[in-house]
Amino acid sequence: MIDHLGIQVRDVPTSRAFYDTVLAPLGARRMLEYGDVLGYGVETPDFWLSPAGSPDAVPEAHIAFTAPSRAAVQAFHDAAVAAGAEVLHAPRIWPEYHPTYFGAFVRDPDGHNVEAVCHAPE
């Protein structure tokens, strides 16, 4: 059900040092870096850290749910729109992640970034 999870942190270098240390005994390591965004995992990056916004903002979580097909990603998007969700990114391929990454991103009622993703080719 959960494909990957992302949290926001106040101090990226401090959190990088912490997660580099505590995830190593679990077999995980820092696998990707996009500037201040860090991806950790064992085989693929499925735990992500990113910098928090302003000090007064509520930290945003990112939760990605696994979808069995691209049609399911589209159905997730359509259901979210019908429920009044803010669309962050309409369904599309994200080649910067990998060639068959097909995802849609919406904001839930509490402001969290919620995604449905299918990794299978069309």
CATH architecture type of the largest domain: Roll
> Can you list the strand order of the major beta sheet?
2-3-4-1-5-8-7-6
Low-confidence residue ranges? none
Question: Quick one: overall form?
Answer: globular
Multimeric state:
single chain
Domain VOC: 1-119
Pfam families: Glyoxalase
InterPro entries: Glyas_Bleomycin-R_OHBP_Dase, Glyas_Fos-R_dOase_dom, VOC_core
Protein name: Glyoxalase
Characterise the protein shown here.
With 122 residues, the chain is α+β, with helices and mostly antiparallel strands. It has 2 domains: 1-51, 2,3-Dihydroxybiphenyl 1,2-Dioxygenase, domain 1 (Roll); 61-122, 2,3-Dihydroxybiphenyl 1,2-Dioxygenase, domain 1, CATH 3.10.180.10. 20% of the residues lie in helices and 42% in strands. It is built from 2 helices and 8 strands, in the order βαββββαβββ. Strands 2-3-4-1-5-8-7-6 form an 8-stranded mixed beta sheet, with helices on one face. The longest helix has 13 residues, at 70-82. The protein is globular, with a radius of gyration of 15 Å. The two termini are 20 Å apart.
